[in-house]
Amino acid sequence: MKKDKGNPAEMGYRQLENRGISRRDFLKLCSATCLAFGLDLNLAPKMAEAAAAKITKKPVIWMQGQGCTGCSTSLLSSLNPGPEKILLELLSVRFHPTLMAAAGEQAVQSWEQCLEEGNYILIVEGSIPTADPRFCTVEGHSFEELVKKAAAKAEFVIAAGSCACYGGIPRAGITGAAGVQDVLKNAKVLNLPSCPVKPDRLIGSILYYLSHNELPRLDQDKRPVAYYRYTLHDSCFRRLHYEKGHFLTDWNNPETQDWCLYYKGCKGKETFTNCASYWWNDGVSFCGAVGSPCSGCSEPKFYDELAPLFSNPQEVK
Ligand code: SF4
């Protein structure tokens, strides 16, 4: 069949192919997104077409506040085709403090120009200090002020990772670390909590938005319902042991290595996440699979209200 060279979707596919992402791989990514969002798989080609038509043109601004840069690192070690390829090479990422080649004046100019043009997706990584603006400043401006300025012309804002969503680990400190939703009261915010951000959720949410022209359905904590509908406990492979009362107490005992980690501090019963059903990094692993109890990192009360990690004070025997 003859391809329509002026068709935006065809042009998008060609640009994807030029960057090493085949039409088949892109379709696979859209199929996975359809599955995650509970959409009919037959809609995947339509989603791919709609997203391909826009993906190379949609500008993205990525800002980093108080965090460890783990969310950016997480993105760089993900699926094939990697979200890092899509985010860094195909979406028009106009500003990213650690990954962009430009620095200093040139980087600031790129940020300002993108703001002037508007209609971009703003991604925020890291929390926003509110106790004193000096805890995080860029070019002499407080991070809070810069996020507010960037959000004003954004189509919507993605809070990537626990720190950006609810303050995360920095909230336990003295900086008054807050999440994006606390600072941007009236903005359209989509939260993707976990420490770090889960790459397939980030790219899936963007694909959904590009193909539907709206955000996916969110829960009361502004998380896409598709990814945070059930608790980890609901789909954990250790669940049968929990029901039988088999609890791991000694990590050095190979006979109990698959037993429930509840008494090692697992917060999976109160943590809404799909980690156990969609393992990280293209199905390589997740915390529970390597013997680590769930820390509850996708919950608003992570970290301070769920600490300490390795014990469950109310339940430890
Ligand atoms: Fe539930 Fe955690 Fe035990 Fe898994 S390890 S069954 S999530 S308590």
Short structural description:
With 317 residues, this protein is α/β, with parallel strands linked by helices. It has helices at residues 8-18, 23-36, 44-55, 70-75, 83-90, 104-117, 143-152, 162-166, 180-183, 199-212, 225-228, 232-235, 239-244, 280-283, and strands at residues 59-64, 92-95, 120-125, 128-129, 137-138, 141-142, 154-160, 177-178, 189-192. The protein folds into two domains: 8-226, Rossmann fold; 230-317, Cytochrome-c3 Hydrogenase, Chain A, domain 2, CATH 4.10.480.
Tags for this entry?
binds iron/sulfur cluster, 11% strand, five-stranded parallel β-sheet, 14 helices, 317 residues, Rossmann fold, Cytochrome-c3 Hydrogenase, Chain A, domain 2, alpha/beta
What is the CATH superfamily of the largest domain? NADH:ubiquinone oxidoreductase-like, 20kDa subunit
Average pLDDT reading: 89
The small molecules bound here are: iron/sulfur cluster
Which CATH-level-2 architecture of the largest domain? 3-Layer(aba) Sandwich
CATH class of the largest domain: Alpha Beta
Radius of gyration: 20 Å
Task: Name the overall outline.
Answer: globular
Strand content: 5-15%
| Sequence of strands across the biggest β-sheet | 2-1-3-7-9
Pattern of helices and strands? HHHEHHEHEEEEHEHEHEHHHHH
Helix content: 25-40%
